[in-house]
Amino acid sequence: MIDSLLITPATAADIPALVTLVNNAYRGDESRKGWTTEADLLEGIRTDADSLQEMLATPAVTILKGTDAEGQLIGCVYLEKKADTLYLGMLSVKPGLQAKGIGKQLLQAGETYAQQQHCRTVTMTVISVRHELITWYERRGYRLTGATEPFPTSPKFGIPNQVLTFVVMEKQLS
Questions:
Q1: Beta strands of 13-164 (E only): which ranges?
Q2: What is the distance, to the nearest Å, from the Cα of residue 85 to the centroid of all Cα atoms in its chain?
Q3: Which residues pair with 148 in a beta bridge?
């Protein structure tokens, strides 16, 4: 467990480091150092600077970043308020530091943010074949809703090596 994780909102100045973090967490050889890789499912990048700039320019969107004691970016999570629901996505942890509690801390920070925004529910989408990730979220109180969504066909999100769909998960907040 990394106890000295500082979680703050990301800014445009963080975009280059966020691009590297997110792409390394999900795709390519670097992602294989962690347990959350999508490298066998998708080719290409997970995000780019333009996409992150667009996200950060959206008033309903916050990206929380987690930095270590030296100020190095080691995790992030995307949060988007939609009425009384918060969509949570792009939970990313530096591959070599995964399974040390960073993702759990970022997830909890996202849930706290949701409560501060008066949201009653947190929702997310997870690629349906990512069973280990679905199980990880279930252990943290998220439940499959039974709903599915198509995987984006834009190469901007990656090129699937197989047919992929998202499952929708949610957690009710107290």
A1: 42-43, 61-67, 73-82, 85-93, 121-127, 143-150, 159-160
A2: 16
A3: 167
CATH of 6-122, one of 3.30.565.10, 3.30.465.10, 1.10.1040.10, 3.40.630.30: 3.40.630.30
Query: 69-84 burial, b for 16+ CB within 10 Å, e for fewer?
Result: eeeebbbbbbbbbeee
Q: 118-161: per-residue pLDDT in tens?
A: 999 999 999 999 999 999 999 999 999 999 999 988 777 888 88
pTM > 0.85: yes or no: yes
Instruction: Enter the DSSP assignment of 83.
Output: T
Query: What does DSSP say about strands 159-160 and 85-93: parallel, antiparallel, or unpaired?
Result: unpaired
